Amino acid sequence: LHGLDRAHLVHPVVSWSSHEQRGATILESGSGAYLRDSEGRQYLDGFSGLWCVNIGYGHDSVAEAATRQMRQLPYATGYFHYASEPSIRFAEAIAQRTPGDLDHVYFTLGGSDAVDSAVRFIRYYHNVTGAPQRKHFIALERGYHGSSSTGSGLTALPLFHDHFDGPSAFQHHIPSYYPYRNPVGPSEEAIIAESVRALRATVERLGAENVAAFFCEPIQGSGGIIVPPRGWLKAMHQVCREYGILLVVDEVITGFGRTGPLFALEDEGVVPDLMTMAKGLTSGYAPLGAVVLSERIYRGIADNAPAGKPVGHGFTYSGHPVSCAVGLEVLRLYEEGGLLANGQRVGAYFQQRLGELEEHPLVGESRGRGLLGAVELVTDKARKTKFDSSLRLPDRLLTLGRERGLIFRAFADDILGFAPPLCCSCEDIDLLIERLSSTLDAALD
Ligand code: PMP
């Protein structure tokens, strides 16, 4: 298998030459928070796949829901005027759980196309409500919103732009709030004030009447698991409202119990105009994403778009009945199955244990919320000195971790990220911390 993998399967987000030499770890089976590879080694999955398998592996009831739906009706197009019971029921379930008037769901296949769909619906909305010049989108540096053509332009991580064309002329970025390294210092008020200033300045430079929307994650994920000060999102929402700009909150990582509540937004008291989600929506058991539109946006389009004239936006697999049947069962497991409550309890313990790692000589800061966490590594804690990127520390640590039976993720040159499944026990977390400490100790040698 390793030879065939190297010969035929493209893995773009690793060095192509190192993949040819080393090949992938081939995963074979999973149960709870644990994975087994093709050579029989067991791993604690400290990253829930790609922060998506929130319920953990091996839930038969999900497999049964998928099989039942596949037998009964494997496909119904949502492209034209058709639907299926699972897509309607899942849309209703999401609308009931999203805050405020976020009541209208468009299903996609994952997060990138949920972001793309949000952008296209926003353009459609502004066009039919008399503001076609609102073409500019603003997002945050260190933000991640997918790697499709549009999503990657909203993403502001150099890795996603080097070798490509970079953001379009309509996509702009303001600095991240990044409390650990914000030039204005650690004061929460100063950080919020600086973000507000940066957003205002960008809006005014572009002309407020030309700006369509501001995109952000409730906690930056792929940028290094960066938690904003409390009140940050509310302050940004306030600026958006002043200028008549739409707010899109991207809950692709933070949704479905990752940070505690079903959606991280619930902690912020903000109702955005649109919301995107994926990953935990089906816990990775089937591909699915969604963009949820508020009543105002939905009505704006429905009431103003030329009657009888369709709009060209749709995916063959939108509202896929099998994915939606999976999503309904996964949602039942979060709620009736107690996984959300377990995630909240174990998430608090995880943050406490992660905090203890600040004692380690390599750890400058540990941070996160719920079952989403990071440690930022430094060579000198007082000066927050970064590691020399030529040391390729993340690669070394990922290998050392894997050798110790722990899977996690590295960001940039110096941040390790963790997103263990919501089914973890406190004992699983102890094991994760033990293996992580041992990994960090080995890196010191
Ligand atoms: N938005 C955010 C916040 C994400 O983290 C991701 C994926 N990590 C995406 C969008 C894109 O999702 P997908 O990979 O499912 O296309």
From TrEMBL:
Q: Name one Pfam family in it.
A: Aminotran_3
Cofactor names = pyridoxal 5'-phosphate
The protein's UniProt keywords, in alphabetical order, are: Aminotransferase, Pyridoxal phosphate, Transferase
State a single Gene Ontology molecular function. transaminase activity
Q: Note whether Transferase occurs among the keywords.
A: yes
Under CDD domains, the record lists: OAT_like
**KW Protein biosynthesis (keyword) present:** no
Please give the family membership noted in the entry. Belongs to the class-III pyridoxal-phosphate-dependent aminotransferase family.
- Name under which the protein is recorded: Aminotransferase
